[in-house]
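Before any further analysis, backbone shapes were mapped to integers, which produced the following:

***
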Amino acid sequence: MKVRGAVLREMGLPAPYAESRPLEVADLELAPPGPGELLVRVGAAGLCHSDLSVIDGSRPRVMPMVLGHEAAGEVVEVGAGTEGFAEGDHVVMCFVPSCGACEPCRAARPALCDPGAVANGAGSLLSGDRRWSHDGDAVMHHHLGVSAFADHVVVSARSAVQVDRSLPFDVAALFGCAVLTGVGAVVNSASVRVGERVAIFGLGGVGLAALLGARAAGAVDIVAVDVVPEKLELARELGADHTVLAGDSAVEDVRLATGGGAEKVIETVGSEKVLAQAYAATRRGGTTVTVGLPHPSRQLEIPAVTLVAEERTLRGSYLGSCVPALDIPRYIDLYLAGRLPVDRLLTHRISLDEVNEGFDRLASGEAVRQAIVF
């Protein structure tokens, strides 16, 4: 079938993207879903820093690629042998397809699915196949098994979670990455408990979702850190007890606000320097969790002795250490109950043709979460 989608052919084109136009909105051919796959009409897709990292080249991927990985939509066709889904189902798509059979999946760690990692690295669906074509291109790649910047997509059923049909698509899309990653980092990876002090470095969609998750978990003295004053103001509105303008004094300011450092610190920026600050702002015996994705060549420097002498924990969190089929419905229930107001993260709703301008806003810090609404 013919669909419209945003194709990235070359990484590293210079900003402003409104001028260099790294994403080409084109008419594409989409093959039907194979066994275990779904054809989904995309209702909305979010613009995420992980997409921007592919555009600017700091997160290398195979090219050309139909970009985007955070989305929600409606199932319009079900591939052969696909159980648990029907036409008309509303789904949120996840950026790691989990096979359910490998060792990490059996250990309830689907973010580390071995076949899913291979497929994502290759730019294919979980089956190893690709469904995109355009003007005779031999290969058009999928982004993280989703390729959300298109009005229709084919995904593995292992990339989709059925959700409440009453949820607007632009809000539902957030649960596929920003909420899953941010809230999951707080609840699953950091195991924030009632009364603990929490600091969050970076207030994009993931960071502000982490803030909401920390508040819902009963944290106190929540400190929000960012370089953009407007984001600090939004953080205060969403429940931050203290805000810190990022800079050389950020560690001292966080430690002052928390009486010596936070028990749990979440870093979402994707900078090894910010991660080192987040680690330094963590109190003795505390846990630092990072969800950011620095360039693969970057190295982290921390005082190694503190891991033992201060019983510190430093851990990564991918996909929020979540089991999407369980956690997405739980987080949606919290949203519907008014305890996780993630709709406040949506600062812009745009069309597909505005996608390059949207990434300029994301790169400058003007936007928190933008949704392409189809």
